[in-house]
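Archive transcription. Copying these from loose printouts into the bound notebook so they stop getting lost. Printout 1 of 2:
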Amino acid sequence: MEILIGLLIIAVGSFCQSSSYVPINRVRDWSWESFWLVQGIFAWLIFPLLGALLAVPSGSSLAAILATDPSAALKAAGYGVLWGIGGLTFGLSMRYLGVALGQSIALGTCAGFGTLLPALFKGENLFSGAGLILLLGVCITLAGIAVIGYAGSLRAANMSEEQKRAAVKDFALTKGLVVALLSGVMSACFNLGLEAGAPLVVAGANPLFASLPATLMVTLGGFATNAAYCLWQNSRNGSFADYGKRSLWLNNIVFCALAGGLWYSQFFGFSIGKGFFAEGSVLAAFAWCILMALNVTFSNVWGILLREWHGVSRKTVAVLVCGLALLIFSLVFPNLFQNI
């Protein structure tokens, strides 16, 4: 029962994350870099800080937690800087490929690297016992994502250039694939940052929120990367004037805050949900892959709702459904071996 509760909590956070790009359409008369920076303040600073405060035991402080192992905090932030590159290119992958295909490829790559690298760094043997189950689970997830990617290629092959532009304004398959793969590799550094920040879990902290100080350090590093890039783009494109459009402040800040809060929900839910899994179990090690698989599933649901798959053939729909079915099975697979 506890495993089911954990999965449901992670699923809720994942659904919120996959919905976080919907408010973008309600932001008016701002360039991409202006929106990305403002929503990042909420997604990578404000909400992670509020989350981290929940892990502070009575009589202590967040500063005291971070000071328990400064090197771990710095390592987490360092991985966050690398993850920030993934965050930048993640937005571009959806710009060029759309919500469904862009998130699928980027998150698929992120799922594989983000799950297997921590196991390898710990010296886990991926060809026997629990390590083999972990590897097989990742392979099933990647197979599902690959099938969804194939569905995306079928969609692209059967669409005219006008239809592609109507569904995704800046559609560019080759450029989008390169960007999405880079995004996935760099985004995997988020989970590496959480592993590096494990020493920041202190006695007395609520175990459901215990990893949130490490999450804050990772997002802080990511914010530094994204802020530097966005400010450079503001300067390059002359878009600093966006912030001076006072008549837009209320509307745009509200939707930026909504997007940021929805995005952060995935890691808030991830921390809580993972707390219901037995420590050291295959399912706990597979939790990152579960989060990414759910993100891909829900992103494709949004892709359908946003009519990105409108007008495709029955074959394409069947391939998409098969891919989603594989992803759903990947969530169940590690649970079959939870005692390992």
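Printout 2 of 2:
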Amino acid sequence: MRFLLSLSAWLSTWTAPFIIAVAALAFAEPSLFDWVRGDVQTCVLGFIMLTMGMTLTTEDFRILSRRPFDICIGALAQFTIMPLLAFSLVFFFGLPKGIAAGLILVGCSPGGVSSNIMSLLCRGDVAYSVGMTTVSTLLAPLMTPLLVLWLAGESIDVDAMGLFRSILLVTLLPVGVGTLCNFLFSSRKGYRTVCRLMPGLAVLGLACIVGGVTSAHGMKFFESGALIFLCIFLHNGLGYVLGYVAGVATRMSKPKRRTLSIEVGMQNAGLATVLAGRHFPLLPEAAIVSAISCVWHSISGTLIAALFSGMAKLRKKSL
């Protein structure tokens, strides 16, 4: 068990290089991840969200009730900045339908679970990060389909009700089950030990999703040229900047600004990848954009967390 706990901690710390290594392996040997398709992919994402639910405690929900203003600001920033940035990039670059669908889907997704780890690494407000991720995930079944329909419905056939059912199935339901398990069994030592393994298992699940998409569409990653990578880079980078600006504008403390920046910039691109494959099968570029976002958000999140942490250390030394 000690080995498994150490492995989970290692995976949580080195998420970005591990995801990149898996993507490279899936590109070189696609057959290794052929099994991550369709319903299996959906189940993997559901498991990731279950791990999130198992980390939520009654104290987390008390924090939500005590900080309604901060949580509202965070949710508003989450579901306005990234969707509108995605739409603006689609309009500015005149992106083709497949790339546009993927970018908008990523922009309209809730915050990613790995953002909580990044908030810890950058000396942010971890409780606020958990609260934001929880609320955005709970709102996702309603907000994501509505935003995708609003921003992309005129040019792309969007099944909003299908998106709603899928998000409900792979986010809200497993998070609810995980939270219930935590409520019922958190006093048991064995259960608490299992919960400590969940971050590493979530990373493995995300790696499987990225590997599955890479094995299916690996050769297409480079067919759209640098445009896909440029748009993903701008979308993610501007999300970090505008998230931090939103924290400054609402006079948040510096730890909260860092957290808001990371929560806004890092999306649940794993969810977007599954939704793209299920609901936009005729637009394979949508899944490719989502999969590349999975990898890049992990890399950039690690980098921005290191930057914030370094700035905090320098500021502390100068005082």
